[in-house]
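thread: overnight batch results

M.L. [08:02]
morning all. the overnight job finished for the chain we discussed friday. pasting input first so we're all looking at the same thing
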Amino acid sequence: MAPAEADIRIWIHAVSSCGTHSSSVPVTGSTPLLIGRSNTAHLQIPWDPLVSRRHAAATPNDVSVLIQRLPEGRNPLHLGNLSVNRLELKVGDSGFRIGQTHIFLSDTPELSRRRRAGLR
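M.L. [08:03]
and the structure it wrote out:
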């Protein structure tokens, strides 16, 4: 049985740099979520050619989500000006980028107007 929306405490969002595309999924349990262009990914980012079909995994724990680039991920994860293969995110952090897509956590399924426009 799927958890009720009120029971979900963390959402992972992807927004294109121009703000015209977005995708969101709830983070539940401890099962890793696949991030990529594939239609089998949990967080699907089909609009960005710099995102691989199977680019990264997001593994939730009690207070954060561990993001790891998969071997198939052609391009790095960008945290500010750094290129990384692994990072830890919490709700309220500014997030990271893959290609031209900004990915971040929030405590709501809704994207604010600023986030939808690709602003931090």
